Amino acid sequence: MKAKDLKVMICDDSMLARKNLAGVLKKCGVDNVIQVSDGQAAVDTYKAEKPDIVLLDVIMPVKDGITALKEIVEFDSNAVAVMVSSVGTQMHIREAVKTGARDFLQKPATLEQITSIVERVVREKSE
Questions:
Q1: C-beta of residue 59 within 8 angstroms of C-beta of residue 81
Q2: Is the pLDDT of residue 88 over 70?
Q3: 122 in Cβ contact with 57 (< 8 Å)
Q4: At 30, is the secondary structure helix, strand, or coil?
Q5: Mapping DSSP to helix (H, G, I), strand (E, B) and coil, where does residue 87 land?
Q6: pLDDT, tens digit, for every residue of 17-36?
Q7: What's the pTM?
């Protein structure tokens, strides 16, 4: 498997944040990017599309990222979810990791951080 084979879902209520993350993913070689703007859409889209990686904001309308993460992990215990948020309090980080997030990145996520996650998932899926 290669980065171009991955399907990645970005969930953020900020269109600019989604656009920036999609641009970073493109630089990593990921072409198949799904974008949604709230936590409920993330859960529904995850169930329909089964993306390889989910990048979730914490604070969003309809359903926050931690709640969406819980529902995604209940549906698929092998989900690879990474929280990407400007609200990086210790409480949020602990809750996200306890819920099943693989990582917690502070916005704006760097090319190096996203590359590292993409490469790790490609390795895992190739084993």
A1: no
A2: no
A3: no
A4: coil
A5: coil
A6: 999 999 999 999 999 999 99
A7: 0.94
